[in-house]
Amino acid sequence: MDGFVKMRTPVGFRRVDVIYRRLNDDFLDPTVFRSDSLLGVKGLMKAYCEGKVALANAPGTGVADDKAIYACVPKIIKYYSGEDPILSNVPTYSCWDRRECEYVLENLEKLVVKSVNESGGYGMLVGPHASDVEIEEFAGRIRANPRSYIAQPTLALSRVSTIVEDHLEGRHVDLRPFVLYGEDIYVMPGGLTRVALKKGSLVVNSSQGGGSKDTWVLSG
């Protein structure tokens, strides 16, 4: 409609200015990417290229979500800014590097191993909580395709009190802050607190049985 994206509502069509997408690029617009996609919107990319709708995240930005990139972030910051990062990375071992891969294979029982191409807590091994069979299986996966895996130390996540049936128990949580980036950068006063609802679990992803909690920001 006039080259803009519009949404059908009970009171007629309303223009859509921003779309927050949770789709891979391939499924975004069947006229540009996969023609068999039933998830995307025909003509969406044309409207986007003409500046008539904003997409967050923009097509192509998924490369930054490749976990293999994470290990390179300090070098990227140094290269473009000439400065060292203010916040340190979690130590990350890239299994495509022969020496780092050897270290990972020798210490699987201590590490968290992640598939670089998966999300939602899939393709993970939490070494301290894994059985010998699971560790051996993951070792085989890494040897067969080292480029597809990274490893990190097992972090001690914070815990909060969580209602479990009729009492409180501690559950592990992590916090995702929201940052808006444009001409200026704004850290929003809030975020997403994810909680591992399974006792003892370090996996907070909703697809793995995790949940969320209200995030309170108190002034000092």
Topology:
Blueprint: E1 6-9, E2 12-15, E3 18-20, H1 44-49, E4 54-56, H2 67-70, H3 73-81, E5 93-94, H4 98-106, E6 111-115, E7 124-126, H5 132-144, E8 149-153, E9 158-164, E10 167-181, E11 185-196, E12 210-213
Parallel strand pairs: 3-4
Antiparallel strand pairs: 1-2, 5-8, 6-7, 6-8, 9-10, 10-11, 11-12
> How many strand segments?
12
In the predicted model, the low-confidence regions spanning at least 5 consecutive residues are none
Number of discrete domains: 3
Shape: globular
| DSSP summary: helix tally | 5
Strand content: 25-35%
In short:
Helices cover 19% and strands 30% of the residues. By secondary structure, the protein is an alpha+beta fold. The termini are far apart.
